[in-house]
Amino acid sequence: MPTPFGVPLPPASGAWREGDPPGRRRWHARDEPLPLEAGGELPGVRLAYETWGRLAPDRSNAVLVLHALTGDSHVAGPAGPGHPSPGWWDGLVGAGRALDTDRWFVVAPNVLGGCQGSTGPSSLAPDGHRWGGRFPFLTQRDQVAAEADLADALGIDRWALVVGGSMGGMRALEWAVTHPGRTGALLLLATAAAASAEQIAWASIQLHAVRGDPHWRGGDYHDAGPGLGPHAGLGLARRLAHVTYRSEPELRSRFGRAPQGTEDPWRGGRYQVESYLDHHAAKLVRRFDAGSYVTLTEAMNSHDIGRGRGGVRAALSRVTAPALVAAVDSDRLYPPHQQAELAAGMPTADQVRVIHSPHGHDGFLIEEGQVAALVGELAGRTGATVAS
């Protein structure tokens, strides 16, 4: 169904669905229901994942790459059928790159609760209907439990390296604390030991935006027609989030107070920065699911590495893997003092490394050269065998 301007309306959800092109995805289905930290269990768990390179005969060269909130398993490669966006760390994975696929076997799962092939609110429940608003509350520990099951299925007893930024960094940290014997080295980027009050506050506003959309329908909108999903709420949440992902100096230097093209902000037109936010909102609506956005945001809010472990310091002391923790100097969402806490609490961590970037929190995605240098620094500590 086209809009008055000829642009097709977005589907109710941007989630990948059965029958869509699989792209590079593979799947692993868990045999048993997954027990959940908050109580109960999740049946029918399936994770989508992608791999690059070959697993060495002794299985020592496996690297786990964990994506952030609206990422997915498509770390590297072009956009195409089944993959609405190009790889989000394309410059890091491939022959001759920091995660050299002639050496490493790189695995990237779509997080449990996500919407690009893994079990989430848009997936079919065992009763044949979409989970929708019935989907259970997840924590980072539940998501890591599902990823550990995937590792078992792949025959990987120990990751040579676990890498993650932002939400992916939360899961990488959970790997190192929950499974220290399975984490060979650890790279944490722009993340925290626990979600802060301010981070929860920003997230809460985004959750209210999505749930306040009249098309939310308690989370049961997935089979509505084109244009009938909670697009306004998800778009508003994305606009707000994107401002926190970037820095004020960058927005000032890129956009200032300039109008968008010939539009007049005094007569209903937009400023350039408004157009920029509109663009990112529209992109997300077409490639993501509002239910997954809610599920994953709530999981991030629940993040506390010290919960049930005697506090943050006691939990961090469990980390045995050589670790690097990196902060983005312009990050106002996950400020550098949070990475300092991580590095100070882990007996195996060096002092905090600084990623210099004008781009704010998103610097961990954009400054691939600086991230590549950190990956290279850790690579020599793994003892991995080159695949033959």
Summarize the structure.
The protein is built from eleven helices and ten strands.
Structure description:
By secondary structure, this protein is α/β, with parallel strands linked by helices. The protein is 32% helix and 11% strand. The strands form two sheets. The chain has an eight-stranded mixed β-sheet with strand order 1-4-6-5-7-8-9-10, sandwiched between helices. Helix 1 packs across helix 2, helix 3 packs antiparallel against helix 4 and helix 3 packs antiparallel against helix 7. The radius of gyration is 20 Å and the shape is globular. The model has no long low-confidence stretch (mean pLDDT 95).
- Could you say which overall geometry the principal axes of the C-alpha atoms support? globular
Our count of helices gives 11
The low-confidence parts are none
Strand content: 5-15%
The level of helicity is 25-40%
CATH classification class = Alpha Beta
Strand order of the largest sheet: 1-4-6-5-7-8-9-10
Terminal residue distance = 52 Å
Beta strand count: 10
| SSE string | EEEEEEHEHEHHHHHHEHEHH
Kindly provide the radius of gyration, computed on alpha-carbon positions and rounded to a whole number of angstroms. Answer: 20 Å
CATH evolutionary superfamily: Alpha/Beta hydrolase fold, catalytic domain
Classify the fold: give the CATH topology. Rossmann fold
What would you say the CATH architecture is? 3-Layer(aba) Sandwich
